[in-house]
C-alpha cells in the first residue's frame, strides 16, 4: 500500500504525493524535519510539513535564486546565502568563475546533515574549498556584517518558525549594511496567489531601503500555486538591464539569459499588488 | 465536516481542495460532468474528474489562449473556438473590436448549459450577438471548413475521452485548411513536467504543417504542475514579432503586452523538448 503525504498549502488547498519511504524524521532544535522518498519527485525535504526541495524540481528554484542576481552583478566575488542548508543555491553560485568565496549561514545544522546524506546531488558542493559553512542565526550574522558581500541570497523557509525574522524590515536594513556599496540581494517572497499581502509588504519594505527593487517569477511545481516570486533589492545594478555580453554559458535546466529578462514581466494582478 | 476533492494529476501526485457543496453531477453523453463549489477557487467545473476551470483562476487560461493569437493577427474578424464550452475564451475574444463573428463549437451541450448556470462570469458572453454557438464535433466541423477563419483556438480537455482526436496530426492539417491564407491557430498543449512527450509530439506535428510554430507558457495554479503550454501554428504572422502599435488596451488580470512577449521565453528543459 502506498502512503500519501499531503501539504495543506492553504486552509483549503493542498498538494498530495505518493511516498515510497520515510528516510528520516526528527524534531530539531528549530523545526520538524522529514526526509521522504516520493514517487514523482525523488527525495524530498520537508520542514514543519512544508515542501522545501525535491530532487526532481529543485533546479528551478536554485538556478533562479542564484543566476539572476549573480549575472546582474558585474563581478561577484563574495556571496552570502542565508538559509539554504540543502546546498542547492551554493552549487549554482559556484558555477560563476568570478566567485572567490561563498558563505552559507544556516540556522539548523540538521538540515545540512540530512541534505548531505539524502540529497547528494543538491548538497554535494558544500564541501568545495570556496565554501564556508556556518551553523548560525542568519539574522544575527547579517546584523554583524559591514560591507562584506557583493551578493546576498535569502533562501529562507516561509515566514513561520525560525524564518519569521527574515521577512522583517529590520532584516533588509541589515542586509543593506552588510552589502558592499554596489551590492545587491534577492529574497524568495512566496507566491502571489495565496500570499499576496506578504509580497506587497516585503516589496514596499525593500523599496524604501534600496534604490532599485525588482520582482521576478519562476514556475516551481511543488510550491504553492506553482508561481514563485523573488524580490531583488539593489544599490546600483538593475537586473532588468544586464548587458548581453555579461552572460556566460552555464549548464542549466531552467535558467537562460532570455528567461532572466522574461521573468521580470509580471502578470497584471501581480503588478497591481506592487503599486 | 468539509469534503475534499482530489484530482490525481499523475499516478503519484495530486491537488486536493476543500469542497463546500456539489452543485451538479451528471454522466453526459460524452463524459462525467461535476460542478462543485470550492472554498479556495469558487465554483469549479470538472470533466472526467479533471479540473477544467475555476472562477478564481480562469482568467489566466482564457486571457492567454485568446489575446496572444488575437494580437498576433493584424485584423482578426472571424474567430473559431473548438471546445471551450465554458465560454471564457469567447468572453476574451469579444474584447477585440475587430472581431465580427466568434463561433464556438462544443461537443457537449451540457458543458454550456451548466457553465451558464454556475459560472456566469465566465459563460455570460455566450449570448452576445456576435457569437454563434454550435453543439457539434469540433473535429468534423474543422474537416468541413475551408479558408473560413482568421484565428482558431483549440480549447480542449486533456487528450482523454472526446478530445483525443484534437491532438492528432490530421486535426492540425484540417485546421490549416480551415484557416484563411494568413490565418493562425493556438492549441493548449498541457504541461511539460508530467506530459513532456505530448508537447514534443504536438510541436513536431504542427511544425511540419505550419511555417511558423511557437510555444508559450502561463501559470495556472489549478492545472497540473502550474506551468501550462500553448502552441501556435501560423501561416504568416509571428507571435513573437508583434509591432507594439498593434496592442490596444484591454481590461485583463494576467495578460499584458510585455507578458505576451515574455511568455515565449521557455525554460531550458522545455526548449530542449522541442529540438
From TrEMBL, chains A, B:
Question: Which sites are catalytic?
Answer: 155
Copy the pathway line from the protein's UniProt record. Amine and polyamine biosynthesis; spermidine biosynthesis; spermidine from putrescine: step 1/1
Pfam families, alphabetized: Spermine_synt_N, Spermine_synth
Q: Which reaction does it catalyse?
A: S-adenosyl 3-(methylsulfanyl)propylamine + putrescine = S-methyl-5'-thioadenosine + spermidine + H(+)
UniProt-listed CDD domains: AdoMet_MTases
For whether the record's keyword set contains Transferase, the answer is: yes
Q: Which residues bind spermidine?
A: 62, 86, 155-158
Enzyme class (EC, first level): transferase
Which residues are S-methyl-5'-thioadenosine-binding?
A: 31, 106, 137-138, 162
Molecular functions (GO terms)? spermidine synthase activity
What superkingdom does the record give? Answer: Bacteria
Keyword annotations for this protein, in alphabetical order, are: Cytoplasm, Polyamine biosynthesis, Spermidine biosynthesis, Transferase
Which GO biological process entries does UniProt record here?
spermidine biosynthetic process
Q: Which family does it belong to?
A: Belongs to the spermidine/spermine synthase family.
Q: How does it assemble?
A: Homodimer or homotetramer.
NCBIfam families listed in its UniProt record: MFS_SpdSyn (NF037959), PRK00811.1 (NF002010), speE (TIGR00417)
The record's function comment reads: Catalyzes the irreversible transfer of a propylamine group from the amino donor S-adenosylmethioninamine (decarboxy-AdoMet) to putrescine (1,4-diaminobutane) to yield spermidine.
List the PANTHER family hit by this protein, alphabetically.
SPERMIDINE SYNTHASE, SPERMIDINE/SPERMINE SYNTHASE
Report the protein name in the record.
Polyamine aminopropyltransferase
Q: Which organism is the protein's source? A: Shouchella lonarensis
Its encoding gene is what?
Answer: speE
Amino acid at each position: 500500500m502506498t502512503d500519501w503525504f499531503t501539504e495543506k498549502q492553504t486552509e483549503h488547498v493542498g498538494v498530495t504525493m505518493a511516498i515510497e519511504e520515510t528516510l528520516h524524521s526528527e524534531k530539531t532544535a528549530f523545526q520538524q524535519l522529514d526526509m521522504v522518498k516520493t514517487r514523482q519527485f525523488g527525495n524530498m525535504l520537508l520542514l514543519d510539513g512544508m515542501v522545501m526541495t525535491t530532487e526532481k524540481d529543485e533546479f528551478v528554484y536554485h538556478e533562479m535564486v542564484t543566476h539572476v542576481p549573480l549575472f546582474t552583478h558585474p563581478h561577484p566575488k563574495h556571496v552570502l546565502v542565508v538559509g539554504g542548508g540543502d546546498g542547492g543555491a551554493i552549487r549554482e553560485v559556484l558555477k560563476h568563475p568570478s566567485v572567490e568565496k561563498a558563505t552559507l549561514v544556516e540556522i539548523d545544522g540538521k538540515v545540512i546533515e540530512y541534505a548531505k546524506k539524502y540529497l547528494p546531488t543538491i548538497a554535494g558542493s558544500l564541501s568545495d574549498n570556496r565554501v564556508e559553512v556556518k551553523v548560525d542565526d542568519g539574522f544575527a550574522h547579517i546584523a554583524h556584517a559591514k560591507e562584506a558581500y557583493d551578493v546576498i541570497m535569502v533562501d529562507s523557509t516561509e515566514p513561520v518558525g525560525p524564518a519569521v525574522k527574515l521577512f522583517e524590515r529590520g532584516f533588509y536594513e541589515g542586509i543593506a549594511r552588510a552589502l558592499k556599496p554596489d551590492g545587491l540581494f534577492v529574497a524568495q517572497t512566496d507566491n502571489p496567489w495565496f500570499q499576496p499581502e506578504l509580497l506587497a509588504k516585503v516589496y514596499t519594505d525593500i523599496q524604501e531601503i534600496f534604490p532599485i527593487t525588482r520582482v521576478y517569477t519562476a514556475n516551481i511545481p511543488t510550491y504553492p500555486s506553482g508561481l514563485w516570486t523573488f524580490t531583488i533589492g539593489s544599490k546600483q545594478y538593475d537586473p532588468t538591464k544586464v548587458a548581453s555580453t555579461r552572460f556566460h554559458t552555464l549548464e542549466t535546466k531552467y535558467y537562460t539569459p532570455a528567461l532572466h529578462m522574461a521573468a521580470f514581466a509580471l502578470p497584471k494582478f501581480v503588478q497591481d499588488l506592487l503599486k
